[in-house]
Hints:
Two copies of one chain form a homodimer.
Chain A: H1 11-14, E1 25-37, E2 42-49, E3 59-60, E4 63-65, H2 72-83, E5 84-85, E6 89-97, E7 114-124, E8 130-131, E9 139-143, H3 154-171, H4 175-178, H5 185-196, H6 203-213, E10 216-223, E11 231-236, H7 238-245
Parallel strand pairs in A: 1-7
Antiparallel strand pairs in A: 1-2, 1-4, 2-3, 2-9, 5-8, 6-7, 10-11
The first copy, chain A, binds a DNA duplex through helix 6.
Amino acid sequence: xxxxxxxxxxPSERNPLVNKALANFKVGVDNVIFSVDTQLNRLLVxxxxxxxxxxxxxxxxxxxxxxQGESLQDAAxxxxxxxxxxxxxxxxxxxxxxxxxRDPREAPESFGVRYLSVSYFALVRYEEAELIARPxxxxxxxxxKEVPKLAFEHxxxxxxxxxxxxxxxEYSPIAFDVLPEEFTLNDVYQLYCTVLGENFADYSNFxxxxxxxxxxxxxxxxxxxxxxxPASLYRFDAKAFQDKLI
Amino acid sequence: xxxxxxxxxxPSERNPLVNKALANFKVGVDNVIFSVDTQLNRLLVxxxxxxxxxxxxxxxxxxxxxxQGESLQDAAxxxxxxxxxxxxxxxxxxxxxxxxxRDPREAPESFGVRYLSVSYFALVRYEEAELIARPxxxxxxxxxKEVPKLAFEHxxxxxxxxxxxxxxxEYSPIAFDVLPEEFTLNDVYQLYCTVLGENFADYSNFxxxxxxxxxxxxxxxxxxxxxxxPASLYRFDAKAFQDKLI
DNA sequence: CTAATTTATGGTGAATTTTACCATAATATT
DNA sequence: AATATTATGGTAAAATTCACCATAAATTAG
Lengths: 246, 246
């Protein structure tokens, strides 16, 4: 928390790897793409197996280098669209990793081009997401709790994204970006449980709290899913939600 | 909230300014440096007047370009240390702005070097902060509500940082990074009022809530400040705070 | 010196929210 | 027809928030 008085020391006077010439960068965008399998209650993240060095044959987050004339967010959408086809998603910037030598291609002594990674965080609708990258053996959903050692600092980025996802879910309506247009209250509950852990809240209290927020519209339509009383289908009312914020 | 089906269209097929060659970047770091003048109850941000084009004579956030071998955070500390001398501060990364043509130096048609801005957010102890940049007419604290039109997209970065500051104050103990080692409960209250607005909470209730959190140690020492009953000096107990988190 | 003013502190009780349950309804399964 | 399962709409206790108040201990005003 406290930053100690080292602040006024000049790094360039102590670290022989720092000189006053400016660094030249290529900028990469790495996406942490989450989805929730509501059938099996699993939180998934999309990984790709690298074909080239560095980290050949390691799994990694989908990434790309930013092209001339392309914005960071465009690059994030592009890499996403190259790997999966999906219509409903939420996407926002996560964090920028840019320490020197994060990429082994950057030799420690030579001051060549550096690689910066701007990470984005996405949540997509699992049911409609179609993996389109080839070969299929090189792309896969992994359960977040079962991801292996990844390339670069991607485990760190993933962990950061996972924290962001949990926070976002608690105070913003991103769940309704990836739920179907019409859903039951139990659908919402299952999604929250899958992301936040089994025992995050009592179902009955969760329902009451959700309805009290006032932005879920009961369509009146009932659906039966296996045993039990049929459940009402609800819709998210984005306008009502906006009005709440003011 | 919803991202519409434009996602699977290739930007490069529609935007003539995009081609498949990679962009080359210089990376800048821009700091939003806040402090709270507890005497006058003003929330301040540090601005510099630019000497060169683009935006010559505009006020701007302190920024620098990242050097070879220098991490992003090192660059943030360096630019801060060049402008002010301070021992107590909080610093974290804010957001990365990197759309094409954010810098007028980037000609719209030529695909020359692009400039990326990684912004950092800092809160420093106002009383000990000493401005060291010269000439003094080119550096100044501005009240956040009185900031003029700034260079680049710096007004946007400032607004983003201001939101982050308000959020951070509500759920993390950054206030104690810039308060003196020993402080009264009123000191804390004034800081919160200055940042979050006059009527954010009742003083008596704020006190009760703060003490109930259990990480403020009463030193027993009393101080008199003008009229009124003397106040107790408290210390922030970082260890007790950590224990709360588990 | 005395009274008024000012600030700190530690309350109260009402209103609201959270929490742990429970009862019933309406379906599928046995 | 009985049982199991899920949805729904409750309850009441516990905890928290909120508006407000009383007293203590200092300075300041008269």
